[in-house]
Amino acid sequence: MHARTAEHPLSADTDLRFSAVLMARAQDAKRKTERTRNRLLASLADHLADGTDRRELKVAAVTAAADLAHGTFYRYFDDIRAATDALIEDFALYLRATLSTQRGGEPGSRERVRGTSLVYARLFADNAALMKCLFDMGSEST
């Protein structure tokens, strides 16, 4: 599932949950490594969306939900924090791409501001847990 261009704005029923986007990417991927990585990230996104705190995430739960062996996780990520960082980085790129493709109208116009704001509100509502992680990243110590 890819963000649509301004000529093809998002419909009201377009699923903007990032976990759904990741699963669509997994299904569309030609290489097994891309499929597996996206399935792991989708599972991680689902756990966050279901209310699991970032600090409480477990590799075993993520891999079980993705229907993958526990050891498979470590082929893609060093630990759960690295996976979460990768998820948030991918999510930030998705946000930017989705918002930029939805800009209709002249720069600064009411139409453009309203359209972009509506898409942002939907993205936020559909991905509240990931938005929280995105906002919290700057406040964490390494």
Could you explain how this protein is built, in words?
The chain is built from 7 helices and no strands. The N and C termini lie far apart (33 Å). The protein has helices spanning 18-28, 32-49, 59-65, 73-76, 80-101, 110-126, 128-136. The radius of gyration is 16 Å and the shape is elongated. α1 (18-28) packs antiparallel against α2, α2 crosses α3 (59-65) and α5 runs antiparallel to α6. 62% of the residues lie in helices and 0% in strands.
Chart the SSEs and their pairings.
Elements: H1 18-28, H2 32-49, H3 59-65, H4 73-76, H5 80-101, H6 110-126, H7 128-136
Helix pairs in contact: 1-2, 2-3, 2-5, 5-6
Overall average residue pLDDT: 87
Structural class category: mainly alpha
Q: Assign a percent range to the helix content.
A: 55-70%
Distance between the termini: 33 Å
Question: Which geometry do the CA atoms define?
Answer: elongated
Number of helices: 7
In short, what is this structure?
The protein has 142 residues and is mainly alpha-helical. It is built from seven helices and no strands. It is elongated.
Which terms would index this structure?
142 residues, mainly alpha
